[in-house]
Amino acid sequence: MALNPVERRLLDLRALWEEFTGDPARRLLVWEAPGAAIRLVECFFEAQKHEAEYTTRDLCIVLKAPFEHSIQYSRALKAALAGIYAASEDDLAREGIAADWDFDPDGLPDSAWGFVQALRSFGARYHRHIGHLAAVLMPTEVSDDAAFGGWLRRALASEMPERLRLVVTDPLEQPRLRALAGAGDPRIQFLSPAVDMLALAQETFAQEVTVGPAGVFRNLLMALVALVEKAPAAVVRAKAADAFDFAKRQGWDDQQVAIAVLVAGAQLKEGRFDEAVRTYRVADEAAGRAVQAGHPAGQKLLIQARFGEAGAHLAAGRPAEAARCYDEAAEIALRIPDLLLAVEAMRMGAFCHARQEDAAGALERGRRALDTGARLRPEVRGMTTLPVAASAMLRVLDPSRMAALEAVGAEAAARSDAVLEAAEARATQLERTTGPEVFAAVEKELALRRAADGTEAEARLQALVAGGTEAFRQAFAAGRALLGPAWPLGVEGAAGS
Q1: In degrees to the nearest 10, what's the CA dihedral of 139, 142, 148, 151?
Q2: According to the model, what pLDDT value does residue 210 have?
Q3: Which is more confident, 50 or 403?
Q4: pLDDT for 218-251, tens place per residue?
Q5: How buried is 436 (Cβ within 10 angstroms: 0-12 exposed, 13-18 middle, 19+ buried)?
Q6: Average pLDDT, stretch 402-413?
Q7: Residue among 496, 475, 474 at smallest CA distance from 485
Q8: Which InterPro entries does the record cross-reference, listed alphabetically (predicted)?
Q9: DSSP string spanning 454-492?
Q10: How confident is the model at residue 492 (pLDDT cuts 50, 70, 90)?
Q11: Which residues lie closer than 8 Å to 208 by C-beta, 6 or more apart?
């Protein structure tokens, strides 16, 4: 059976993987890829559990524990490995393989060396049933790139056998492991799979049978999306005319919005701001027709057009026009209601008024943003732009005092980094030390020092706030009530007093 486009890409990844595993000197693969393609890389490793043309005999274990510091990360990886093994015992039994690996995560150090020893133990028990054993490290968060890189170096120093490999993915847009390349370590290989996700989507759609107007339009739209990435705006606009007219004949107002937004984006990239404004207004008209027709997403399409036009005005240096668009977007968002979009529209409206040195207008919109944000669940607020909106209000009220607050935050962050660096150095010394109590002592010291630094930073912050005007103090209190005691420093332990 012929492979589909995704499977062909997985086959390409298999060739790269076998290039890595075929070199007996290699131990660590840094797989660099665009953020959109990393999901495909993960899919390749997950697919190794099944039989297919793009799979191997290698056992790849994907581990997504976040990296806070080396001790926590090592302990989390050992626990995850134990959990994955426990969950697979029934599968092993069905395959006639004894599920008798005896592993106690607490019996090995909370270190890179300890984790590697756990992998070695597992690999030694099941080496007859697998090719290479690979730990695929995809932490959901990394608190410190240098510390994570140091952890990887210590893992490499753990005398890994040839059939044991480590893999880590690194986004090309924001690489965090380039320092490893500079080391010139022959055990490390950097690979960048040539995966064009847009081309993959086009090929996937092209393989499907085109049925009716929807199929025709899909192909028109995909061709337009491909052009946006590389063609001049004039070419994009000319190509868009066919897709726009087709959507218009079908009465698809929502798709007309999508086409206009694509064209406007291409115009913005070339600095053709007035053209982009006119194109966003075309999108706005189509969105208005969608609202009148009762389209369920009509109001959000209106907001998208308003946001787009506002961005074009801002890029052209017209903050007053941008503010008008943001105000309109905020009112639409409140009608839906979509509180997240409303907050962002109000925040940007405040930004535009501050750009015009209209403090009253900026503060009014900032207060509305905070009042609207109060309707969100507390655990969600910090994940929105509310912290930025609250800080912007303080900056409008007293720029120099807000700068002093930011300096306190920067100094607290620097001290936190120094404390973490000291803890990492201590963890390095303990790589092969057994007994969880020594690692727990380092973590306790880390927590105590962070808490002490946080208490000091909070005291300095409160002194600065107390010296401000009544309006400044009220705005600060409103921000704290809404966002919690960690705002606005954002430093771990800063509000732990």
Answers
A1: -50
A2: 60
A3: 403
A4: 878 888 888 888 899 999 999 999 999 999 999 9
A5: middle
A6: 95
A7: 496
A8: TPR-like_helical_dom_sf (IPR011990)
A9: HHHHHHHHHHHHHTS-HHHHHHHHHHHHHH-TTTTT--T
A10: very low
A11: 215
Task: Give the pLDDT band (50/70/90) at residue 211.
Answer: low
396, 365 Cβ separation under 8 angstroms: no
Determine what percent of the chain is predicted with pLDDT higher than 90.
74
For residue 122, give the amino acid letter.
F
What is the pLDDT at residue 207? 56
Write the single-letter amino acid at 479.
G
Q: Report the alpha-carbon distance of residue 222 to residue 201 in Å, rounded.
A: 8
CB distance 349 to 326 below 8 Å: yes
Contact at 8 Å (CB) between 299 and 331? no
Strand, coil or helix: 262 = helix
Query: Are 207 and 5 in contact, with CB atoms under 8 Å apart?
Result: yes
* Residue 332: closest CA among 319, 346, 320: 346
Report d(CA 405, CA 427) in Å as an integer: 33
Contact 25, 189 (CB under 8 A): no
In the three-class reduction of DSSP (H, G, I as helix; E, B as strand; rest coil), residue 348 is classed as helix
Question: Which CATH architecture fits 5-197?
Answer: 3-Layer(aba) Sandwich (3.40)
Indicate the DSSP class of residue 347.
H
- Chain segment 180-194, per-residue pLDDT in tens: 877 788 999 998 876
Burial 97-119 (b: 16+ CB within 10 A, else e): eeeeeeeebeebbbbbbbbbbbb
Q: H or E element: which one contains 31?
A: strand 28-33
Question: What is the C-alpha separation between 343 and 328, in angstroms, rounded?
Answer: 13
Q: Which residues have a Cβ under 8 Å from the Cβ of 377 and sit 6 or more positions away?
A: none
For residue 409, which amino acid is it? G
Domain boundaries, the chain: 5-197, 209-294, 399-483
> Phi and psi (nearest 5°) for 290?
-65, -40
> What rounded mean pLDDT belongs to the chain?
91
